[in-house]
Amino acid sequence: MFHNFNLAMKCVFLILAALGLSVADEGSTYDHFRLPTALRPRRYDVRLLTQLENPDDFRFSGTVKIQIEVLQNTHNITVHSKDLTIDDTEITLSQIGGESTTENCITSTAVNPTHDFYILNTCKELLAGQVYELSLPFSAKLQDQLAGYYRSSYVDTVANETRWISVTQFEPASARLAFPCFDEPGYKASFAITLGYHKKYTGLSNMPVKETRPHESIPDYVWTAFEESLPMSTYLVAYSLNDFSHKPSTLPNGTLFRTWARSNAIDQCDYAAEFGPKVLNYYEELFGIKFPLSKVDQIAVPDFIAGAMENWGLVTFAENALLYSPEYSALEAKQVTANIVAHELAHQWFGNLVTMKWWTDLWLNEGFATYVASLCVEDIHPEWRTLQLVSMSNLLTMFRKDSLESSHPISRPIEMTSQISESFDEISYQKGSSVIRMMHLFLGEEAFRTGLKSYLEKYTYKNAEQDNLWESLTQAAHKIGSLPKDYDIKTIMDSWTLQTGYPVIYVTRDYTSRTAKLSQERYLLNSDVSRAHKGCWWVPLSYTSQEEKDFNNTVPKEWMECTETGESVPKTIEDLPGPDQWVIFNNQLSAPYKVNYDAQNWKLLIETLNSEDYQSIHVVNRAQLIDDVLFFAWTGEQDYEIALQVISYLQRERELLPWKSAFDNLKFVNGILQQSSVFHPQSFKRRLITPIYEHLNGINDTVASEQQQEKTILNAMVADWACLFEVSDCVAQALNYYRSWRSEANPDEVNPVPLGFRDVVYCTAIKHGSVEDWDFLWTRYQKANVATEKHIILDSLGCSQEVWVQQRYLERNFDGMGAIRKQDSTSVFQAIATSEVGFLLAKKYLMDNVDSISKFYHPQSESMSELLPPLCEQIFTRRDYDEFMNFLDSSKEQLKDIEQTISQSLETMLINVQWMERNYERFTRAIKKHV
């Protein structure tokens, strides 16, 4: 909710907030988005009765007792409450502690709907130093809105009936939908949860069960009380009622570890149950701190929009994030599960044990969990060799997103609750992870670990901000000697976390004096914007030469520095090789920046890449050169002639990362060309892809092995593009597999399509097939029991070339009838929008139905943000740009909580328009030379 409240009042609040003063006594006139600071909760006692038996009347009711410590005298109590009914005649307030309990009372209550405040005015003043107990009764409908405390369902296929469960999702600010509370991360307290429910269910919460006893008045109901929790933030509280089965794991250190799913999917829990305990052990070693709880439950929830959530001791997952079936899921799905489990369990320390003070530092949670998860998976599954791939993927994502002027700093001020959700994006996760990796590489292992451990120990059960972490790491680095005494982490890292964007480093060599001059500026894709004075970064410079080829040394040889006023200090590098040898900066992409060289250095690099000696350049740096040169060609800083000379070496390339880099970039050019009927460079692409497609033996099922994960992923990626451009026998092979599947007597049990190629085969068959092919696959979707398989089918159904089939699919996607779960509807829309035929339909559908779509997602309005990018990435004419801009302008009310996505979408379209006007001719000329 966006209210521009009285500016003068706002200034007063900001001044008071800056002075650390409370404005609680303003009563209901208090209108700042943060809670007043006069009170602090110490303990919550939450008793909650849930009725799940009657589908016509799902509801919950309960009482919360909050022990509140008074820090400054005040006449009122402000808590968060949203969509809850509170009977204010039943509220009690008493002073506790000391000899006796003294009754206080409530004179009146008020509501501030803008900030979800429930304000209680007290009979007597609450006095600093005293502790009070506030008891609030509450009740609400148990909705299906995927936030707060909500219901989810699945079909028991044996009994052929719908089964209901309840579960919570409180991050970032939805605990207030479940019970009145101080719903900000800085207010840590302990929680004693008691759940009342029908005895046929299992009750789970953050802590182990203390006792279960029969309900005093409702037959067949029980009360289950859970042990009191450690101090934690409200967004980490969790509970669920379900009739699931579980798979126990044994842990050497005594932590009880269980993995839960609906009974007809419990066999898909094996991998997560085996992997999870190994992850806990890894982090206990990495952080040098034992896991503080006595149990961990992981649970797969049928309706779950967040992917996964790190609630302390009760980690919740969407089914396709936790469950893995060797019969139905590709190996890549196993990697995804491993990464997500490792990410959520990293939070048990980074986020749960030590929590950010405010959402400004959300990235400390998410960037860190993303990065250490990649270390964890590499440690447990070294045979997968995923660390390079994950680091590279994070960088490629971040380079794209953060080259928009409308991007934002990693650490960003949050001025209202609706902005918090927008921070859960590629900048917090992928860029956050990339800058932590950079820091790990320049600090070295020992300083990194020592600094982390001392930070976690110092702020255990407390809240911290990024400066606290920088301090611990600087101390460790100076003590160990891995950072010069006159450098500190704060100065270096602030340049990466407090300003938007990343630099491009220009390397201009003087071949006679064997030196190079380096300069930096912010890299932007939008060429209408001046880059001058757009920031300065402290850049660790690693580099190597054609003779030395020391790519494994990622420790910086030099630094690019900034003055105190944020100007870049010019840098000269000495002792470089002569004019017949290239140099490459940023060994293994150890820091997130791009590098543009002078013409001679590019010429030398192109010669090596297009020779038998191309592997003398490290595989990550080959991927870097492709990504950099295609970006520079896009913005006109390099000629497409040069870019195509770089990528034409790919005919020799057999490794995954350079191909991933190329495909990620070509996807954007292809998106534009797919919609423009003028010129399709098919023959160039076929020439590029055919050698690797044939080298990998096409989509003939070579048995995928865990030892060759990279090859398996490359295989699927190449096949995807090969079938798109009808290379070699790709389409014919795909159609053969699909036909033989259709002719199976029992297609739900027997599927001859190779696991690693199912998405390619299904999509190709739907694209080149009939309505019967589509309907066959839709039936398989309805009958499938494995979430990853269902997901692949939904995406593939969007590949049809039939306009009416795509239209029918769009309508089915948003009809709310439950065939497609709400959490999957955005990826269905994306699948349709990125197909040649579906683009115009999806665009028109969104424009015509924006009102009903926005109601469909309410209150998860952030889901709307996922519908815009696939459309904007394919708009490239001024006319379409203006049309879409008008649509966004006239739909402000329906799109009100996704301002960030809107500005990024507009900028993306503008960048495409610029490309079309500046590069289309150059691009086609260059391509024709290479065919």
Automatic annotation (TrEMBL):
Reactions catalysed according to its record: Release of an N-terminal amino acid, Xaa-|-Yaa- from a peptide, amide or arylamide. Xaa is preferably Ala, but may be most amino acids including Pro (slow action). When a terminal hydrophobic residue is followed by a prolyl residue, the two may be released as an intact Xaa-Pro dipeptide
Superkingdom, natural source: Eukaryota
GO MF assignments: alanyl aminopeptidase activity; metalloaminopeptidase activity; peptide binding; zinc ion binding
Annotated membrane topology: Lipid-anchor; GPI-anchor; Single-pass membrane protein
Presence of the UniProt keyword Iron-sulfur in the record: no
Free-text remark on how the cofactor is bound: Binds 1 zinc ion per subunit.
Enzyme nomenclature, EC number: 3.4.11.-
Record domain Peptidase M1 membrane alanine aminopeptidase: where: 271-496
Signal peptide (UniProt feature, chain positions): 1-24
Residue numbers binding Zn(2+): 343, 347, 366
Main location: membrane
Needed co-factor(s): Zn(2+)
Similarity section: Belongs to the peptidase M1 family.
The name this protein goes by in its record: Aminopeptidase
Gene transcribed to yield this protein: LOC117145819
